[in-house]
Amino acid sequence: RVSHLAATFNTAKLSSPILLSRTVTYDAGTNPPRRGASNGNMADKAGRRRRSSSILQVYHEPPEPIEQLSDQSALPNLNANWVNAKGAWTIHFVLILALKILYDIMPGVSQETSWTLTNITYMFGSYIMFHYVRGVPFEFNGGAYDNLNMWEQIDDGAQYTPAKKFLLSVPIVLFLLSTHYTHYDLAYFTINFLAVLAVVIPKLPVVSS
Asked: 0.90 cut: is pTM over it?
């Protein structure tokens, strides 16, 4: 009887679905994953996500300290106040006219090329002057404007002032004239359009600080 009970217990033990060992099949030529491999893969993916997120970081320039703001208001900014002086707006038309005459007298330059070169030259000079160069060439402000370009210095950074509206409208009008006198040629239009974008976009409030 004892042997019969032992045989019955062993049969139940082997036939129980709980006690049966699990079998997993793999394709030929593949290695079964090692214990802890899934955790390692999750850690690698998390690490890759952490490393890739650093690419999307946006740098925010810290606000200017109170000392620097007080230095800016202590003395007039001669580097930017000239744009509101008498005759300052006229100089833009004089420069554009001088550039147009210069390119017209060059042999072999067509009217379409002359207008395009005039537009590009004015846009390039405007970008360098108002958006590329930072600070002031004077020392009496104690470095108060070292982090600001001329566009940000004009009218103490206020937007939509008469001077800034004028400086924004001049490149747009010149672009329209260049497009008209190049007879809306696609190649010239593309060049002139990219040139005006390079000057207009930095003047927008969402871009300039």
From this structure: no
